[in-house]
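Sorry to interrupt, but I need a hand with the structure work. I would like you to pick a protein and set down its sequence and fold. Please put the record directly below this note.
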Amino acid sequence: MIKQQYLNNFLSMPFILKLMVIVGFLSPLLAVSNVIAGEVVFGQLVKLKYGAAESLTELLWVLILVLPAFLSSYLFIIKYKYSRAIYILSWFISSLSPLVLFSTREHVDVFLQSFYFSVFLGVCFFGYLFFSKQAKSYFE
């Protein structure tokens, strides 16, 4: 049965790869919950929170930009040939998704701090996915 094979694929993954898949599957939920809540930046007007969506359109754009991370997690489970590259690309697209929010464009310096950290994590993920013996053997 195909579904049993997917479960076996997930269970045979290395632990870090499992965590990456879980985060990918949860990424739409995490993004939407963060965009709804936002956060207050020191010296900022309380009515405009950094990273908060002002409209449903902004919220939907963030959700659309995060969906590739969700899909790439599924591609990991089915062992698609290019799933590692798609995951890295979707990570960077997700990292840029806050730019569709007006409140983020107001505080670009705060966005850049988190973006630099996201780029660092993306490079770490790249290194793990393409140079780790465990990850390579899973995709073979």
